[in-house]
Amino acid sequence: MKKLASVTAAAALLLALSACGTTDVSQSSAPAAAAPTSSGCDAVKPTTGPVAVTDVLGRTVKLDAPAKRVAVLEWQQTEDLLTLCQSPVAVPDVKGYSTWVSAEKLPDGVVDLGTRGEPSIDALVGAEPDLVIVEATSADDKLVKQLEAKGLKVLATTGADATDPIKNMLHTFGLIAEATGRAERADAVEAEFNASLQQGAQKIKDAGKAGSEFVYFDGWLEGSNVTVRPFGQGALLAEVGESLGLKNAWKGEVDAAYGLGQTDVEGLTTVQNAHLLYTSTADADTDIMPALRKTAIWSGLTAVKENREKGFPEGIWTFGGPRSSQEMIDAFVAAFTS
User: Fold this and answer.
1) Where is the protein situated, by its record's location annotation (predicted)?
2) What is the per-residue pLDDT across 25-63, written as a single tens digit (0 to 9) for each?
3) What's 241's domain CATH number?
4) Is residue 237 a part of any domain in this protein?
5) Which residues pair with 22 in a beta bridge?
6) How many beta carbons lie within 10 A of that of residue 2, not counting itself?
7) Which residue range(s) make up the domain with 299?
8) Which one of 8, 179, 285, 307 is most buried, counting C-beta atoms within 10 A?
9) pLDDT of 18 higher than 50
10) Same domain, yes or no, for 221 and 269?
11) The pLDDT value given to residue 27
């Protein structure tokens, strides 16, 4: 399962947007956003009044009131919005989200924008959002400019930052909370996340597993070939593991944003003494484990022979927000204490 970069979406959107006029979203005739599906939302009340949020591009996004009709072009931010007790009006690949993200459930009736790489512009405009949340990396991001030319308010976020992935995850969550008038809810969720991290670290310490080494990976299939993608230094999931008192054994080259590496099954021989953890999925088209298990190299790995390999539960979005990160904590604790 590959994380699609926001620049891919940008390239696909530009031509579709360039021929369009300006959309007035001040008077929406579309149905209201669905009721929130996250737990603990009964007492959550958004603030009122004008909103001004400085996004990751240094732009000040001004709204007359907290955003109520929010379209989101990536899954982490979709999860974040749901955790904040607000349902999106439109997201890309509803089926894919429901397969890969278990932390927060999408309600029925959300407009499906198609693929994350090439979302439908007609569907996006038709959803009549008062805010569109995107991932962007530079001040001259063409997607942001084109969407603004359509009369749409755009909040730019950073998909990943390997220098401090947990900080970036929480910052993204906070930006969305500001734009929707739900900072109080965000503070409560962040406190829950930090408490879960502390409690998880204590459980691992009590089990005598602090300092244990791990390597987490997912990957993809190309015919009969398996590409293994280790989560190295700077990957969100790996940083969660290290914050629990564990040690990430993968020291290979990784990308600067997501902290992800690339190797094959033979590359795992260099870390075979570590616990081998991996993404589980019921999707046979993307599950690499059956192919790995057929190889003699996999069967011969020390971790495999000593039963120190374990799949994390299905649906943990390894690029997610606070709730997905809490699922990561629970999975690490279970892997090292049960």
Assistant:
1) Cell envelope
2) 445 567 678 888 888 898 899 999 999 999 999 999 999
3) 3.40.50.1980
4) yes
5) none
6) 12
7) 208-337
8) 179
9) no
10) yes
11) 53
